[in-house]
Amino acid sequence: MEDCIFCKIVKGEIPSNKIYEDDKVLAFYDISPEAPVHFLVIPKSHIESANSLDENNVSIVSHVFIVINKIVSELGIADSGYRIVNNCGEDGGQTVNHMHFHVLGGRGLKWPPG
């Protein structure tokens, strides 16, 4: 998608602080972190939101979670704990219409988040 900021990051048109990249996903640190560790994992293909998942693209979600497991282990927060957040739609707090997963850790996280 032409005007999608995450698609532009995937293409290298907008710089990011990459943590991980493979042929399916890209992970990078959030530019406005809400925790000592805060990164995003996005599919490289444009999927607007969780509502856009179907039998043709749903396997990307399992891949995202495998990548998250790898990254949190490397960053040393796997044992202490972390939160994975996927916002869906306007009322769900989604501000970029490209499915993405926030991973937050490195401190105690309260519930409900607000």
From TrEMBL:
Domain HIT: 5-114
UniProt xrefs under Gene3D superfamilies: HIT-like
Active site: residue positions: H100
One of the record's GO molecular function terms: catalytic activity
PANTHER family: HISTIDINE TRIAD HIT PROTEIN
Chain positions of motif Histidine triad motif: 98-102
Protein name from the UniProt record: Histidine triad nucleotide-binding protein
Record-linked CDD domains: PKCI_related
Pfam families cross-referenced by the UniProt entry: HIT (PF01230)
